[in-house]
């Protein structure tokens, strides 16, 4: 079956209204697993971090990890949720070889945190994303299909299972459906995941690295005609980068709009996002909750976090990213537009660190969003991976402010820093880039320039001061750009008046 109609994105969102929803899994950075004392360190030899509990051996009993519960409550509080005073874990029953117990301990109708929200900013406008629930569960192991060319099960000669990951605490954060986003649905989905990642990073409960799988995102998308009921949604699984979140929503909107335009029906199913092609492909038809035969976990006591404990955790929350950005904007004296460009460039922390290293906010912004952003763009590198530290940028600006180098030389110095030649001061010394401000040396160059350009000099003598520019240029050329232009100009005017 293939779709005949292929709409553009603009046509799709003109004819249909998208409703999105996001389910995000975050692996907590606790020292031990959710229900046993096994370590959680990444990258150990397969099946070396296991015990009877996380291997699901008969008779083994789970004990809940207090640190994981605390981390989940803090995430819930940061997302403005209510914390349930009482609740139970539940068994989610299904068979999968990487899940040794044949059920996952999760939370079902009694999640730990409910009914919150996260505000995200898009082009200076605040969009509030409702949070339906935040609950705690355990991760599964990992299956490795070997012997085939692709690493997939097809063509593999054997499958190996590593249970080191089985039982690592996993928090699932589920949004309420988000209607009314229109054409901005993909952008808003990305902005939400970005903000959520920053919040969780600020709480220091996970390293939230999407590329390593410690943060994984499922994206729900449905379309409806304006004014009609919401459509059937699909769930795109394991979207593993911020950029892919945006692309997955966009491509699913285009696909569904094509199907619906042809009079087809959207099937409730799981789909997989393909990084190479940027589209989604059909996976399995989506299970409903009844397929999992949930029931309260009989081996664990109910969770009943004390109100005082929750109040303590709430009082101890760190300054959250949105509040921090507002404070920094006011401290830095940036306009909304200035700040927006800093946020979009992902440069908030870099500028903050540069200011801490002694630069003014304006000069820090000038370097990171100007010359450095240009170089990052050219080499398709992230700003923080350029090899230039905030301290180096502050030092560079310090050299400019002290008159040791000018802006043009500063860019050459930056080149040296990026090439690994040392700190800005070291590059200036090694490459001999310091400006010539010694008046004796400059006077000689000025005299030479006047002698070589008698007609220009005559104009300046007649009061046409603007003509001095040509002489300044000649001196700069003679000194290889290392003269201080302001001093040169003063010397020329003094000589010719
Ligand atoms: Zn264990």
TrEMBL record:
<keyword id="KW-0648">Protein biosynthesis</keyword>
<dbReference type="InterPro" id="IPR018027">
    <property type="entry name" value="Asn/Gln_amidotransferase"/>
</dbReference>
<protein>
    <recommendedName>
        <fullName>Aspartyl/glutamyl-tRNA(Asn/Gln) amidotransferase subunit B</fullName>
        <ecNumber>6.3.5.-</ecNumber>
    </recommendedName>
</protein>
<keyword id="KW-0436">Ligase</keyword>
<comment type="similarity">
    <text>Belongs to the GatB/GatE family. GatB subfamily.</text>
</comment>
<keyword id="KW-0547">Nucleotide-binding</keyword>
<feature type="domain" description="Asn/Gln amidotransferase">
    <location>
        <begin position="349"/>
        <end position="496"/>
    </location>
</feature>
<dbReference type="InterPro" id="IPR017959">
    <property type="entry name" value="Asn/Gln-tRNA_amidoTrfase_suB/E"/>
</dbReference>
<comment type="function">
    <text>Allows the formation of correctly charged Asn-tRNA(Asn) or Gln-tRNA(Gln) through the transamidation of misacylated Asp-tRNA(Asn) or Glu-tRNA(Gln) in organisms which lack either or both of asparaginyl-tRNA or glutaminyl-tRNA synthetases. The reaction takes place in the presence of glutamine and ATP through an activated phospho-Asp-tRNA(Asn) or phospho-Glu-tRNA(Gln).</text>
</comment>
<dbReference type="InterPro" id="IPR003789">
    <property type="entry name" value="Asn/Gln_tRNA_amidoTrase-B-like"/>
</dbReference>
<dbReference type="GO" id="GO:0050567">
    <property type="term" value="F:glutaminyl-tRNA synthase (glutamine-hydrolyzing) activity"/>
</dbReference>
<dbReference type="GO" id="GO:0005524">
    <property type="term" value="F:ATP binding"/>
</dbReference>
<dbReference type="InterPro" id="IPR004413">
    <property type="entry name" value="GatB"/>
</dbReference>
<dbReference type="Pfam" id="PF02934">
    <property type="entry name" value="GatB_N"/>
</dbReference>
<dbReference type="InterPro" id="IPR023168">
    <property type="entry name" value="GatB_Yqey_C_2"/>
</dbReference>
<dbReference type="InterPro" id="IPR014746">
    <property type="entry name" value="Gln_synth/guanido_kin_cat_dom"/>
</dbReference>
<dbReference type="InterPro" id="IPR017958">
    <property type="entry name" value="Gln-tRNA_amidoTrfase_suB_CS"/>
</dbReference>
<dbReference type="Pfam" id="PF02637">
    <property type="entry name" value="GatB_Yqey"/>
</dbReference>
<keyword id="KW-0067">ATP-binding</keyword>
<dbReference type="InterPro" id="IPR006075">
    <property type="entry name" value="Asn/Gln-tRNA_Trfase_suB/E_cat"/>
</dbReference>
<dbReference type="GO" id="GO:0006412">
    <property type="term" value="P:translation"/>
</dbReference>
<dbReference type="GO" id="GO:0070681">
    <property type="term" value="P:glutaminyl-tRNAGln biosynthesis via transamidation"/>
</dbReference>
<comment type="subunit">
    <text>Heterotrimer of A, B and C subunits.</text>
</comment>
